[in-house]
Amino acid sequence: MSPNAISLARAPAALPILSRPLSPWFRRLLSSPVLAALATPHSVSSYLQLVNPAWSLDEERAVVVSVHAETADAVTLRLRAAAGAVRFRAGQFVRLTVEVNGVRRTRCYSISCAEKRASGDVEITVRSHAQGTVSQFLNVHAAQGLVLSMSKPEGDFTLPSPRPAQLLFISGGSGITPVMSMLRTLITEGHGQPVTFLHYARSGADLIYAQELEAISTAYPHLNVVTVFTRAPGSTASRGLEGHFDRKHLTQLVPDYANAPTYVCGPSSLIESVQAVFEAEGLAGQLHTEHFEPARPAWQASEVTTGEVRFERSHKTAPNDGRTLLQVAEGAGINPESGCRRGICHTCTRRLHTGQVRDIRTGATCSEPGRDIQLCVHVAVGDVSLDV
Question: Using CA atoms in the order 294, 300, 305, 306, what is the torsion angle rounded to 10 degrees?
Fold first, then answer.
């Protein structure tokens, strides 16, 4: 097994060994240049993995401790890091890397559990998507004992400290996961101030954490949990609200929302609708957003130019068809390492050699040779050459 391979061990019997952390002092000892020389031509990590596939000096790894089905197409994975307890802030995400059909794939997933868990484990909830290679893999194949690569927590979509006197959470679909981490954290802290949680799902069958949300709504009167089913109106959980987000939903649920720091996560359509309301009322400064899908292009499709994209390192070329450079690369049979696919994690950052590219989030162009760009949120404008 190479040092960079991801083990797909799933045997529950191996879990006590797999979940044992690699202590800091032992890690320092194994990082000795003397041991590195003795291990040549292999690495120290390659020998470590013979003892425990979750141990590595080259990357952070974690083992799946348990798997829980949330809906027909979503699972929650409890992960234990080989480096020990994971410290994070509610709302942050991790980058997971798995090997699917011989190709390493990296994606970002929000941590969904509360902060400061005694076990030091973290949980993520993954919904399977039709075009989601990693999400489909994890929904089908993730099992107790699976070893994967997991980054340290990242992101600034987090609860402020000290906690505000009033909070408003708005989420849609899979965007519920970081918001759920915030809500669970507030509950474990004994936060007694008003919190309104407005979530949009297609139907009851699509609602992640359905039973827990109902229990929270019953047990904590100061937590106002409202779920709107956009394709199945009439639910008692919606408090009479129907359809997609609009200002009337806000004024009905939180008349004084102007005084509540607001956290929104979900599809671009939801985030844009909320932003429009808050910007129109001069409240943009209190709005915090997190996308879980690529931002909508900031330019008209008719402005997309043609040309050729050259991937210098891979010695391949592909026509510019208006898709992001990451999608063009993948269409050409190149699989650059990527994560969030929405311009947050910077995993897919590569160097621009020649040509001009456009940022789909802002419409701004760049033609400076040697500039680092994110493949997932840039498109080619004419001929482009990349260090890929």
Answer: 60
Q: Quote the distance between the C-alpha of residue 66 and its chain's center.
A: 19
CA-atom Rg of the chain in angstroms: 23
Residue 346 and residue 257: Cα distance in Å, rounded? 33
In a 3-state reduction of DSSP, which class is residue 349? strand
Q: How far apart are CA 127 and CA 118, in angstroms?
A: 26
* CA 179/CA 31 separation, integer angstroms: 38
Q: Which pLDDT does position 100 carry in this prediction?
A: 86
SS3 readout for 2-17: CCCCCCCCCCHHHHHH
Q: CA-CA distance, 168 to 199, in Å (whole number)?
A: 11
Query: What amino acid is encoded at 46 in this protein?
Result: S
Q: Are 74 and 140 in contact (CB under 8 A)?
A: no
Residue 86 in contact with residue 147, Cβ under 8 Å?
A: no
Which pLDDT score, from 0 to 100, does residue 242 have?
87
Is omega for the bond preceding 255 within 30 degrees of 0, making it cis? no
Distances (CA, A) of 334 to 192, 241, 315, 325, 388: 51, 46, 10, 11, 8
What is the rounded CA–CA span in Å between residue 239 and residue 202?
16
pLDDT at position 1: 31
**318 vs 332: CA distance, rounded Å:** 6
In this prediction the pTM is: 0.76
Residue whose pair of structure tokens reads 């003795």 in the numeric block: 38
Q: Could you report the average pLDDT of every consecutive run of 10 residues in the chain (388 residues)?
A: 36 49 62 65 58 60 93 95 90 91 86 92 93 90 91 92 94 96 97 95 93 94 93 73 92 93 94 95 93 61 74 93 90 84 82 92 88 92 94
